[in-house]
Every structure is written in structure tokens, then in C-alpha cells.
């Protein structure tokens, strides 16, 4: 069962971090393009000195944490969240607990 009231997009719009125009533009981009733009923005911020971050090895961890955070908010039942991710409920509970992710933190 999904938590129909949860929408990260709506939260970001309400907090004025994004607007509807941004949502329409990002909808036309692939995930790879969005990550590339974010990396370019980060590189610009630090004047191109992104060396030593081991981003290639940490990216899977970043993506998995984003998935866990999304499912904690989006699904009312943990079993549905685990099913969405294609993992067992036991594994889901372990990952969420290990990462210290809860509704209150998101």
C-alpha cells in the first residue's frame, strides 16, 4: 500500500527549492543526465577539484540510500517497500536499521 500523501516533488516545491518548470524540464532528462549535471555543478563549486572522492565506488551506496529513503516515506507497509526494491522484508529492515533511516529523519 502506497502512502498517496507523500511526494518529494511537492515538498521541494513547497520549500521553494524547485518549481513546476523545473519539474517539467527534469522530466525530459535521463537519470544519467541528471547525475552528470549534478557532478558538473559540484565540480564548478569546488573549481574542478573533485579528485580523491572515490565517487565511482560510492555511487552505488548513494543510490541505494536514496531508494531506501524513498520507500520509507512512500510505502505504508514495509513489506510493500521491500517488494518494490526486490528484497526480502528481513533484508529491508536490516538495511533501514543499519542506515538509521526513519520517517522522522526524512
How would you explain this protein's 3D organization?
The chain is mainly alpha-helical and 106 residues long. The chain has one domain. It is 65% helix and 0% strand. The protein has six helices and no strands. The chain has helices at residues 8-14, 20-27, 31-45, 55-74, 78-85, 89-99. Helix 4 runs antiparallel to helix 5 (78-85), helix 4 crosses helix 6 (89-99) and helix 5 packs across helix 6. It starts with 7 loop residues before the first helix and ends in a 7-residue tail after the last helix. The model has no long low-confidence stretch (mean pLDDT 89).
Task: Show unreliable segments.
Answer: none
> How far apart are the first and last residues' alpha carbons, in Å?
19 Å
Helix segment tally: 6
Largest β-sheet summary: none
Class computed from helices, strands and strand pairing = mainly alpha
How many structural domains does the protein architecture include? 1
Based on DSSP secondary structure assignment, what is the total number of beta strands?
0
Percentage of residues in strands:
under 5%
Residue share in helices?
55-70%
Radius of gyration: 16 Å
Amino acid at each position: 500500500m502506497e502512502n498517496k500523501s507523500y511526494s518529494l516533488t511537492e515538498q521541494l516545491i513547497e520549500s521553494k527549492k524547485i518549481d513546476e518548470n523545473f519539474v517539467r524540464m527534469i522530466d525530459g532528462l535521463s537519470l544519467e543526465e541528471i547525475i552528470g549535471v549534478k557532478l558538473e555543478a559540484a565540480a564548478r563549486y569546488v573549481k574542478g577539484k573533485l579528485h580523491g572522492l572515490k565517487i565511482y565506488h560510492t555511487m552505488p551506496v548513494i543510490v541505494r540510500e536514496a531508494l531506501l529513503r524513498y520507500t520509507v516515506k512512500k510505502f505504508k507497509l514495509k513489506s510493500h517497500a521491500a517488494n518494490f526494491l526486490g528484497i526480502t522484508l528481513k533484508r529491508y529492515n536490516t538495511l533501514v536499521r543499519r542506515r538509521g533511516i526513519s520517517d522522522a529523519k526524512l
